[in-house]
Amino acid sequence: MESQNIRPGHLTAHQAARILGITLGGVRQLVHRGRLQRSGGTPRQPWYAADEVTALLADRPTGNVA
Question: Cys-Cys link to 30, which of 14, 35, 54, 55 (CB 3.0-4.6 A)?
Fold first, then answer.
């Protein structure tokens, strides 16, 4: 269940996964690899900074080969 009292500028793990197009396990791997940091919440329901998630999205390759 997602937290209803999240601070502005932050995303839940579910929201971050949806934006990045990955699973919750993928979000955990990004944290484990140091590419994404928790910025609040609880150990079971972490929050992530929205600008950090959008920066990861912008850094992803598009997959288009010209």
Answer: 35
